[in-house]
Write a structure and sequence with these properties.
Two copies of one chain form a homodimer. Chain A is an alpha+beta fold. The first copy, chain A, is 34% helix and 26% strand. Chain A has helices at residues 26-36, 53-72, 86-89, 93-99, 125-135, 180-200, 247-252, 276-285, 313-328, 343-352, 363-368, 389-414, 422-430, 444-454; strands at residues 40-42, 49-51, 76-77, 83-85, 104-109, 112-120, 144-153, 167-177, 206-210, 222-229, 235-245, 255-257, 263-265, 267-274, 302-306, 333-335, 357-361, 370-375, 382-385, 416-418, 435-440, 457-462, 479-484. In chain A, strand 15 (302-306), helix 9 (313-328) and strand 16 form a beta-alpha-beta unit.
């Protein structure tokens, strides 16, 4: 399973440059890691990035991990057009309000002005709704469980690699159901799949729950979200799932003949996760030496670095090749056998690229029939015998994953505080304390007041019993909400 | 490996309708198969199709088969922007001439007119060339071997599902090399990979070779192609690979410092294959009962159809489930356990969808501990014992693949004729004889004359020694060319 997901560093980069410290210059640190680990590059098109092979290899592993989960729950992939007629976007009132300002319009094609401009899809509910109206006839055709992997475009003003780009890659699931209950169960199931993926594969703990009305997807009855906490105390919305009720069914006339012989509108859902989570992964796990990759989405689990003296070069190289070959049957391995750079340079290089485990092998290790394992998360170097090496490396990979999740969870817990009053909320947000847990009466006026004072937004309503008074009006609270500043 | 790549047929289709005969109404037959096998549907956007789950599952298998081959030859995937600034397209003179008439232009975004229109990529040489100029510094950075899976848009006048659509999915490889020889070897290697994929996985025999100057990719030094023959006698260009020489390197200033310490332009290639080959597959292998899928890209290798009487329904169904479960460990299996339709209906349904092998199991088969295997290619039904069933099905799948290739090759051979004169060429093309092999002096004037008379085009120059006179001017021939009408 050897991959080649990286390129030989370009000449100018052969001396690895310092990156700014993560703690003090977080934003500069992020950009430096994205560029120097060769995850992405800026493009000549404003707001669009190029995802370089090493970054794309991570995205491919993310896609596979998600696609597996989608298919295991009965979903199938399909592909719908990139272009959406203007009139379609306008069919669902809230939807067009939400998306129209962000749309890129094709107005000319084949040398002619178009009679109706075509939107480059910002999301595909409308065109998929139109097709579902053609395909769905009877209750026997339900549920329809379709997912699409594609690019979408949203005209953003300020952009940052992965986190907010004009064009981005994502998946969007679109399902149609016979009953409101089935649609609700689907929306919740997909949120749970996102949580399981982000926590289980990316080692990023999240808060999981419902969006307040003010933050719903345009056209949704109910929106669900997973929210992660970044090291600067800001929340990152990392995946959303929407129960669209019958809003799109009515707008696009998606009806079915039920077993009672009456015609009814279907209930639909949509859910999406984008390459934005790759940005989250960089921020949460990276350190002053660069990227740190959770093993399940690392293009290389392991890099093997031979440490050779001139005298025993071939011998050490042979052993390194054997070790890499053996490990390569069980995991993704890269052998770094370059001769024009030193082992020390290679260590720094692969640390920058976040490879979870380094395997060192030098002349003395030959006699001892051992290698040295070094986890990217720091901690002890450990000499491990050749016999049973695969198992030892696998354990260390699991350890690295566990350690990354443990650290991120500790950070999340330390940076989640409770606030009983608006002033407490304002103070906690001002001190960059991360998530602030408040009790809320559920009224929009109170939400708006809390937003305005704190300059933070309600990220997620969790399923916990609320007690005590609303932080704003003091009437009995009905919901527990986490506020934060957000990306 | 059970998949769910299809949907329960919609109510209106529950009675399978006749499709026109392939032999007499080829074009109508093609459209009927695309729609009725639920491979694709028309969309409300002119020239754009929706690829439905069953069609997309075939495309996913094609992607995997190609991606495996690309990675095995050292290529890595990346992602470049959908939008290309107008000025970029104009940098390479031939390139802009070739593509500008087909471009869709974004002129408005975020509520404002753009100062420079953005092309929706028709192909990505220009934007990738720009990035390569930034990334490549030294001979040590070469070769760069990148592939991209993406959508592209070309404003076509007449469109047909898969064969010619305004938006289509494809892959485009873009490589940069130190020498002209390496670039030439790469272009040829990728053509050979396409040939191996189309013949080996799609069971479609092709002619493989060079394009004449008049048919080159805009901006290429040399273009290679694989050409398949469709049942209406027309050629289908099924994959192309281009040696771009230093044309794009000069246009985008892609230079490297060589080991001799001088600065040089790189040599680049590009190569692409699209979902068009899915159209080719439908046309070549399909028959009057619908689609026939070559096993390697069939979403289901096998469909298991239980044939139950009311009395022994559970018993037969249990056995069918066991059989499907066992086979499912080795291949992609679908169990059709629907009760609302008859076995005969299911046979017709899965024949329409082209599943290569049907497994029938009824009450009498329980006693005999056997099943009946029916290949989609026709021929004998065969009773096979449960013991060793996996091996028997695997052999039958190989047989189906071989039979499909054999038939297509026989057709290709029968429909490839030689012509010594322009009149022979005209007669052969007029009689829809398929490929017409001619000897040619290599001069454009003769090519143009042959084109004009025959209304056919030179599809491919093969690597065979030419003998005899040019079909037009009678001077000694230098090349062997196959003419045909083409999609």
């Amino acid at each position: 399973m050897s991959h080649q997901a990286d390129r030989h560093p370009a000449g100018e980069d052969r001396v690895i440059k310092e990156i700014p410290p993560k703690g003090r210059e977080f934003s500069e640190w992020y950009t430096a890691v994205v560029l120097k680990a060769e995850l992405a590059d800026y493009s000549p098109v404003r707001g669009c990035i190029v995802v370089r092979p090493y970054g794309y290899a991570i995205w491919e592993l993310m896609q596979q991990a998600l696609d597996r989960r989608f298919k295991a729950t009965g979903h199938v992939n399909a592909y719908f057009p990139l272009f959406i007629p203007q009139s379609f976007l306008e069919r669902e009132a809230e939807h067009v309000q939400g998306f129209a300002p962000e749309v890129a319009w094709v107005t000319r094609g084949g040398g002619e002005e178009l009679s109706e401009p075509l939107a480059v899809r910002p999301t595909s509910e409308t065109i998929i709704g139109h097709m579902y109206a053609r395909w769905i006839r009877s209750y026997r055709d339900l549920p329809v469980l379709i997912n699409q992997w594609c690019n979408v475009v949203r005209w953003e003003k300020a952009t940052r690699p992965f986190l907010r780009t004009m064009e981005f890659l994502w998946q969007e699931g679109h399902t149609a159901h016979r009953t409101a209950e089935e649609a609700e169960a689907e929306a919740r199931q997909m949120l749970e799949i996102y949580r399981d993926f982000v926590e289980g594969d990316l080692a990023i703990p999240v808060l999981s729950g419902r969006k307040p009305e003010s933050e719903k997807f345009p056209g949704a009855v109910r929106s669900y979200t997973i929210e992660a906490l970044m090291p600067d105390g800001q929340a990152l919305q990392s995946g959303t799932s929407h129960n669209l009720g019958q809003n799109f069914a009515r707008a696009f006339d998606i009806k079915f003949l039920d077993s009672d012989n009456t015609e009814k509108y279907v209930y639909t859902t949509s859910w999406g996760i984008s390459w934005r989570v790759l940005g989250g992964l960089i921020m949460v796990h990276g350190d002053d030496r660069g990227l740190v990759l959770p093993p399940r989405v690392a293009p290389y689990h392991v890099v093997v670095v031979p440490i050779f003296t001139a005298a025993r070069r071939e011998e050490v190289l042979d052993a390194a090749r054997r070790i890499a070959g053996r490990l390569g049957e069980k995991m993704r391995v890269r052998l770094d056998d370059r001769v024009e750079v030193t082992p020390g340079w290679k260590f720094t290089d692969w640390e920058m690229r976040g490879v979870p485990v380094r395997v060192e092998i030098g002349p003395r290790d030959l006699e001892a029939r051992q290698v040295v394992l070094v986890p990217r998360t720091g901690g002890d170097r450990r000499a491990v015998p050749w016999d049973g090496l695969e198992g030892a490396v696998q354990s260390l990979l699991d350890e690295v994953h566990g350690e990354l999740f443990r650290r991120a969870k500790a950070y999340l817990d330390e940076h989640t505080v409770a606030a009983a009053t608006v002033q407490d909320l304002v103070d906690a947000i001002g001190a960059r304390r991360g998530f602030v847990r408040v009790a809320w009466c559920g009224r929009e006026a109170c939400e708006q007041a809390a937003r305005k004072e704190s300059a933070a937004s309600p990220r997620v309503i969790v399923e916990e019993p609320a007690s005590g008074p609303c932080l704003v009006c003091g009437t009995p609270a009905r919901e527990v909400v986490y506020f934060a500043r957000a990306y």
